[in-house]
Write a structure and sequence with these properties.
Strand 5 (about 110-115) and strand 6 form a beta hairpin. Helix 1 (about 15-25) packs parallel to helix 2. This protein has 2 helices and 6 strands, in the order H-E-E-E-E-H-E-E. The chain is globular and about 45 Å long. About 20% of the residues lie in helices and about 30% in strands. With about 130 residues, it is an alpha+beta fold. The chain starts with 12 loop residues before the first helix and ends with a strand.
Length: about 130
């Protein structure tokens, strides 16, 4: 008998459709750039900032320019739509943060801090 080492993750089909829709509609606009940081507005088709009606959140990427490849890039993602704070949407928040890191930071070692109400968390990406 062949051993299967995969882990099956069960996600509600409705939530899976929402995740796919939001990731496929994910767009960015760079707001600010300095020699050590970038700030990107994050736009999603189903979420927005309730106060301004604009971007659902922002991503701030702090670079270390000292030439030490063993230092992590510090990245903060802040989601401003309170609808994203629902604990049932944690898989969505996790999937969006993962996609944002992949698109904006790539394969660099990254310390991530996600702020999304009850769905907030910290993670480390190591290449």
């Amino acid at each position: 008998m062949e051993k299967n080492n995969t882990i099956d993750v069960v996600v509600d089909p409705t939530l899976k459709k929402l995740i796919d829709k939001e990731i496929n509609g994910l767009t960015f606009i760079k707001n600010f750039r300095s020699s050590t940081a970038e700030e990107w507005y994050v736009f999603l088709p189903g979420f927005k900032d309730k106060k301004t009606g604009g971007a659902a959140g922002k991503t701030i990427i702090h670079y270390n320019l000292w030439g030490n490849r063993d230092i992590f890039i510090n990245t903060t993602i802040i989601f401003d739509d309170p609808n994203m704070y629902d604990p049932q949407l944690h898989p969505l928040i996790y999937a969006l943060a993962d996609e944002i890191i992949n698109r904006l930071v790539g394969y660099a070692d990254t310390l991530l801090s996600v702020h999304a109400g009850e769905n907030s968390y910290n993670a480390a990406y190591k290449a």
